[in-house]
């Protein structure tokens, strides 16, 4: 080729380059595709943008373009559509008079470009279908093994997982509400993604960091940011706290419950340290006699339990700990533990006894590490009789025998008290609850007869009839005897007598038995008198109702007879003229008539 040929070739190349640079009609760069956004599972509407001027929409071919691969998926001929075999078969249809292709059941695999093309290749409209799927709530797993503050490199704090999102969401880590950024030798975030068979993505992000003692309560969480057709959204995981290990610098002792302690309380003594984990502890108590420190036996958690607490547990305690990471021995300050107490209460005399009408003094004693208050209470009623250590009883009556309680308490320690019961015995013969009583019974039935007596010395009870007797102690000077008997005609006739006796005398209770079958008729005409007390100074016998009625009838009869007799006498004297008042009156009347 000559010089002229070379020049021609050069000019041709320059012309071609200038033509390509300037652009040739029909070969200009294609415009940006129309954007259509839809969520997974929804329906996408792909509107063909070819105008009537560019071609007849009754003849259109639809293509999907993915990874530079163009595939025919739908044909439109004379306004009728036909789906091509393949992944879009049975998912495509037409609407809006054939201008819109409807794609149902959108999946992540549909995230691509779709084109509609007329008869001529130049007649083409491109649509960019963007598919979105919100990820599930992010899950977070914390490093349960913990992190030491002495670690020289970032250590895994937690892992965040966001499943089934599309496209891959963005992850942001937070500590105490502040976002974390990559920081050399301090913070490192490593994220990865996995595409599932359904086209969705699972994001996995690992946060690694160096921690300090101040991070022991820090709250970590992750946030997933993603987009939907409606806009940008985010989801947060729950907050987690990672175990942070750091050496202890101080050890101290705690006692529960707080405040004043008393005997009988459940007391727990535990050691604590400002390190994590807590070092192994031992609890030491100072011997009050030898002043030496002695190790106490603790439970599996290193806690000394005093249950119940006793005054012997009082003393000075301290904790000793050994930090296993630094092998440093730690010791707490000594703390004094005081268990307040009241000793056993003693009453003198221990078995008091006295004659009726005399006086008696009871004394009460007890010891405590606090100021004591003494009270005397009547056991039966709980009535407060006196305050102080001594109780004076004057002009004693039989009824004043029985229980007296001395209560020793510590006002400054609520609930701390002890008491002692003593029974006062009053000398005297047996004292019966009832002198006599009546019982309604049925013949041939089994009956329990009871008899109660008291006295000092304690009386014994004997029955006048045969039966099975059972004695029950009521109080130290009282006894209740219950006799089990069969109701026979002989028993109905004789009744029963209970005899109580001691060295100072005897007393009785008589029990009358009446058949229950006669009770109704008897009650209609008579009333049973109440049982007489056995120990009254006198007993007044009252008339029963039948007796009182008989007396009234007799009195009325006598009065009638007296009046009748008196009338007969008066009539006799009148006839004989022995009544001067009557006769003078008659003569005066005759005299006046004759005049």
From TrEMBL:
Q: How does it sit in the membrane?
A: Single-pass type I membrane protein
Q: Where's the Ig-like domain?
A: 31-128, 138-241, 243-338, 343-423, 430-509
What's a GO biological-process term for it? glomerular filtration
Q: Where does the record place the region Disordered? A: 521-543
- Which compartments does it reside in? Membrane
The family database entries (CDD domains) matched by this protein are listed as: IgC1
**InterPro entries from the entry?**
CD80_C2-set, Ig-like_dom, Ig-like_dom_sf, Ig-like_fold, Ig_sub, Ig_sub2, Ig_V-set, Surface_Rcpt/Adhesion_Mol
Record keywords: Cell adhesion, Disulfide bond, Glycoprotein, Immunoglobulin domain, Membrane, Phosphoprotein, Repeat, Signal, Transmembrane, Transmembrane helix
Q: Which GO terms describe its molecular function?
A: laminin receptor activity
Gene Ontology annotations for the cellular component aspect, listed alphabetically? external side of plasma membrane; plasma membrane
Q: What residues form the membrane-spanning segments? A: 551-574
Signal peptide stretch: 1-23
Question: Briefly, what is this protein's role?
Answer: Plays a role in cell adhesion, and in cohesion of the endothelial monolayer at intercellular junctions in vascular tissue. Its expression may allow melanoma cells to interact with cellular elements of the vascular system, thereby enhancing hematogeneous tumor spread. Could be an adhesion molecule active in neural crest cells during embryonic development. Acts as a surface receptor that triggers tyrosine phosphorylation of FYN and PTK2/FAK1, and a transient increase in the intracellular calcium concentration.
PANTHER family the record matches: CELL SURFACE GLYCOPROTEIN MUC18, CELL SURFACE GLYCOPROTEIN MUC18-RELATED
**Protein name according to UniProt:** Cell surface glycoprotein MUC18
Give the organism the record lists.
Answer: Bos taurus (Bovine)
